[in-house]
Amino acid sequence: MQCCQWCAIFRSPLWTIAAPLFGKPLKKPLVPGLRGRFYCPTNRLIKISGEAVPAVPADVTPAYLAIDWGTTNRRIYVIANDGTMLDTIRDDRGVLAMAAGEYPSEIAAIRDRLGDLPIIAAGMVGSTRGWREAAYVPAPADLATLAGAATRIEEQRVTIVPGVSLLTDTRADVMRGEEVQVLGAIVAGLAPADALFAQPGTHNKWVHTQGGRIADFATTMTGELFALVKGHGILAGMLDGPVADGPAFRDGLSRGSGACDLTAALFGVRASVLLGRIAAEDAAAYASGLLIGNDIGAVPDMEGQTVYLLSGGLLADLYTIGIEQRGGRVVALDSHAGFLAGLHAIREHLS
C-alpha cells in the first residue's frame, strides 16, 4: 500500500480502532479538528499535518513549545534544545476563538497534550486582542531587540514576543509574527542580512532588512480586499470562479501593475464581463491579477531585485509570476522554518 493511501486512513476516526491491528498504536490520539504527528506504517515517514518530514530519533528530549498564535489559526511546535522540531499541531484556535479569561486553561490543555514545557509565543496573542499585550518595538529591530522587549507571564512560564512598529512623518505600520519569520530566515542562512522579503496573505508584508535588522516595511490589504469585493458590493457573485494562472490572471497583472485607478479597474471587472471582454468564469482570476499586480507594482525598482518569498501554495505561485513579470527574481523560503529559527534564536537571547 502506498504512503498516500495510508495517510487517507490516518485521517479517518477508524484509524483509532485499526491502529493496533498494524502493531503501530498512535503516539497520540487524533482529535477532530486538530492535526498532529502520527507514524506511517511503512516506517518511512512521519506525517505532520499532511507534510512529509524526516523521522526524529526517539531519544531526543523536548525542551520547549513554540507557538505561532495568529488571528484565526494557531500552530504549536515541540522543540528540542538544539532547535530540532519534534512534533507539531495546527488548529483554528486563533485569538478570535479565545475568550479573554480562557488563556490559562488553554495553556494547560496544550501542556496536557504536548508536555509540561516552557512556552514562547509570537503573533496576535501579544496584541490588544490577544492574551497579554507585548508592546511593539520600533524599527529598526533585530532578534536581540525582540528578546529584550519580550513579555513574560511568569506564573504560566510563557514568554510573548513583541511585534515591530514603523512611524514616520508620512506613514505608520505594524507587524506581529512576520518579524520572527523574516529575522529567522536570516539567522538560519536562508536569506542575506540585506534583503527584500514578501509575505503574501490576507495582509501582505514587504519587508526591507539591513544588517540583519528590519529597517522598513509596508503592509498591503491585498488578500482582504479580494475577499471583501468577492463577498460584498457590486462584484459579489461575480468572483466565484477559480483563481489560477492563465491569460485572465496575467491580463489582470498587467492592468493592475502601476495603476493609479485601482477602484476604477475593479469596477471594470463587472463591465468587462457584461460587455463580453472577460468570460464570467475568468473574472475571479482577472480580479486577483489586478490586486496582486497593483501590490507588486507599488514596489519601486523591482527590475533586477531578488525577493525572498515567505509563503507557499497557489498564492506564492501567483506572486512569483507577478514579480517575475516585473523583472524581479524570486527565492522561495519555508515560512515555518523561518519562524522556528527566529523563535529559537530569541530563546537563546533570553537564556
From TrEMBL:
One of its GO terms (molecular function) is 2-dehydro-3-deoxygalactonokinase activity. The keyword Cell division does not apply. Transmembrane segments: none annotated. InterPro entries: DGOK, DGOK_C, DGOK_N. Coiled coil: none annotated. It comes from the Bacteria. Keywords: Kinase, Transferase. It holds the Pfam family DGOK. This is 2-dehydro-3-deoxygalactonokinase. It comes from Sphingomonas paucimobilis (Pseudomonas paucimobilis).
